[in-house]
């Protein structure tokens, strides 16, 4: 019995080491099998950006939303079928866009190296390009992710919401092996992009029984948001940019946060405890320190793996 138990333990440890080995990412993963993959992906992202300045924010958000459900396995790219509603059709993902950029990159990479580069890696690389081509830092992305076969709209409930408080954010990040430092650094991704009224109306209308507007918001800033987003807003694409330089990757997000000019409750929440507030202040003062922390946290987040295959078409399983 003891021998059987020790054999079972040895087998489970072997399987664990194999799965760890399989999921080990490396920066030189495609050096032999598809050496030009990264430069091709970069040129596709650059071309898309020249036609649509919202592409970088879209790609960065897409990558976040992918990694936070089942790991970075490109499950966010899968289309719904008659039998399954996929992640991209879950409520938080309805506003995701620029999927065509990943399709175009995949098409070019497939023509060069068929069946080699995963959609998950293409998305991770495109997110890095989105940051770098917007004036932010660049980094060497570890590669070797595999594409997942499961994508369920209901799982998008697991995504951290813009209404989250600091304890909800902490729980969401820690469940994925990410720290409070990672939370503050990755929130800086809000330097790029746009928010629809629905994602921050809780702060500017009927905030609580005492006041209509979140008192932590700077008065004239709140008034400007209320004029763009009236209580019964009927304009589908109404909203606000996430910071004053929404197509440039910089530390303006943190500076505005300290001035009471943040958009989401989840942004404001970073000022509610000493540790995260201190990091916000540090990043507001030093773009260099922000970029260094952002790169470190991006590599950590994008290394949460979970797939099994390399798709030939990013929208459908093999």
Automatic annotation (TrEMBL):
Active-site annotation: 65 (proton acceptor)
- Which chain positions carry the site (Transition state stabilizer)? 61
Quote the CDD domains the UniProt record gives. Answer: secretory_peroxidase
Q: Sum up the protein's function in the record's words.
A: Removal of H(2)O(2), oxidation of toxic reductants, biosynthesis and degradation of lignin, suberization, auxin catabolism, response to environmental stresses such as wounding, pathogen attack and oxidative stress. These functions might be dependent on each isozyme/isoform in each plant tissue.
Q: Which GO terms describe its molecular function?
A: heme binding; lactoperoxidase activity; metal ion binding
Q: Which residues bind heme b?
A: 190
Asked if the Swiss-Prot or TrEMBL record annotates the protein with the keyword Calcium, the reply is: yes
Q: Known catalysed reaction(s)?
A: 2 a phenolic donor + H2O2 = 2 a phenolic radical donor + 2 H2O
State the signal peptide span.
Answer: 1-24
Taxonomic path: Eukaryota, Viridiplantae, Streptophyta, Embryophyta, Tracheophyta
Give the protein's recorded name: Peroxidase
Specify the species.
Answer: Actinidia rufa
Domain Plant heme peroxidase family profile, first and last residues per copy? 24-318
């Amino acid at each position: 019995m003891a021998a059987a138990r020790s054999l079972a333990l040895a087998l489970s440890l072997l399987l664990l080491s194999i799965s760890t080995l399989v999921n080990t990412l490396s920066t030189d993963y495609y050096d032999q099998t598809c050496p030009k993959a990264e430069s091709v992906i970069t040129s596709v992202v650059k071309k898309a950006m020249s036609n649509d300045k919202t592409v970088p924010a879209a790609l960065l958000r897409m990558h976040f939303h992918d990694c936070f459900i089942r790991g970075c396995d490109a499950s966010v790219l899968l289309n719904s079928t008659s039998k399954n509603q996929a992640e991209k059709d879950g409520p938080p993902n309805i506003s995701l866009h620029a999927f065509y950029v990943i399709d175009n990159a995949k098409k070019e990479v497939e023509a060069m190296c068929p069946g080699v580069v995963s959609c998950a890696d293409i998305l991770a690389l495109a997110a890095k390009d989105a940051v770098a081509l917007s004036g932010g830092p660049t980094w060497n992305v570890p590669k070797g992710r595999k594409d997942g076969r499961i994508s369920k709209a209901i799982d998008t409930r697991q995504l951290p919401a813009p209404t989250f408080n600091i304890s909800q954010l902490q729980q969401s990040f820690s469940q994925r092996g990410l720290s409070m430092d990672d939370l503050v650094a990755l929130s800086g991704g809000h330097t790029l992009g746009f928010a629809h009224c629905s994602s921050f109306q809780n702060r500017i209308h009927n905030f609580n029984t005492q006041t209509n507007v979140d008192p932590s918001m700077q008065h004239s800033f709140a008034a400007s948001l209320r004029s763009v987003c009236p209580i019964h807003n009927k304009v589908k694409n109404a909203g606000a940019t996430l910071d004053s330089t929404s197509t440039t990757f910089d530390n303006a997000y943190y500076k505005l946060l300290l001035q009471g000019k943040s958009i989401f409750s989840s942004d404001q929440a970073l000022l509610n405890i000493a540790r995260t507030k201190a990091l916000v202040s540090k990043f507001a003062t030093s773009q260099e320190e922000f970029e260094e922390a952002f790169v470190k946290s991006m590599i950590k987040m994008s290394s949460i793996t979970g797939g099994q295959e390399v798709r030939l078409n990013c929208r459908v399983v093999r």
